[in-house]
Amino acid sequence: HELPMLSLDNAFNADEMKEFERRLQDRLKSREPIEYACEPKLDGIAASLLYRNGVLERGATRGDGSTGEDITHNIRTIPSIPLRLMGSGYPDVLEVRGEVYMPREGFEAMNDAARKTGSKVFVNPRNAAAGTLRQLDPRIAASRPLEMCCYSVGLVEGGELPARHAEILQKLNSWGLRINADSAVVEGIAACDDYYQRLAQRRNGLAYDIDGIVFKVNSLDLQVKLGFVSRAPRWAIARKFPAQEEVTRL
Ligand code: IVH
Question: How many CA atoms are closer than 13 Å to the CA of 222, on its beta-carbon side?
Fold first, then answer.
């Protein structure tokens, strides 16, 4: 990857979220309320798409963050990923990042069909997405219900993007890339907590698996001021849901 694909720090409760905001305000030397982009944390596989002059040139997995696997052949079979960007005004080189995942309904239908023919069933939608992207034969990916939802950009050359994260995502959407319709922009950490509670209520009814909520400082100017620590940005955090518990017989 020309720019590393980072991971996220985690928070597990409301107090850790307050500490996150306090750290931001201390570093920014300001008590002004901060605007956050709130996004469901999709439980799939991170992917990078490279568009040159609007044409999809390469698809890659995250790998170790610096080197991923080339999965262009499988990425090209996913209907929600445009082979050519729509409209105009996109940068000459645009790297889009997001999550490739399998919606729950498609996953269940695929496993039902596999059970009937006695072929391999997958444990969960994430494993199914990972196993599919790893295939050498793109006909397998083409036959499975994969989707991609975009959540950031990487390399950008020869063009300008808006100054706020949520506006960048809207631009990506205008060029034909899918973004998450359940995302929102809020002000202050109390509103982040409201968003988290609302999504947690809806979690089981969503069309896709999520394992938390990602909160990102919306202003790119502030993101640059805040910077990164080792492999994660200071300006974002994932608030994880408590692990789901199941009863089993041993
Ligand atoms: S942002 C610099 N946004 O979570 C920030 N990640 O632990 C990089 N993920 O590998 C990631 N939904 O695969 C971001 N809305 C979202 C996400 C998201 C899922 C995954 C992503 C990443 C992992 C980070």
Answer: 23
Residue 178 CB neighbour total at 10 angstroms: 17
Diameter over CA atoms, the chain: 62
For residue 97, is it left (φ>0), alpha (ψ between -120 and 50) or beta?
beta
Please state at what angle helix 104-117 crosses helix 125-133, rounded to 10 degrees. 80
Its sign, for the CA torsion 126, 127, 129, 134, is positive
69-105 pLDDT per residue, tens: 999 999 999 999 999 999 999 999 999 999 999 999 9
Q: CA-CA distance, 216 to 192, in Å (whole number)? A: 10
Q: How far apart are CA 37 and CA 145, in angstroms?
A: 28
The preferred substitution site among 41, 172, 195, 216 for testing ligand 1, maximizing ligand atoms within 8 Å of CB, is: 41
For 53, 107, 116, 152, the CA distances from 178, given in Å and listed in that order, are 19, 19, 33, 11
Distance from Cα 246 to the centre of ligand 1, integer Å: 26
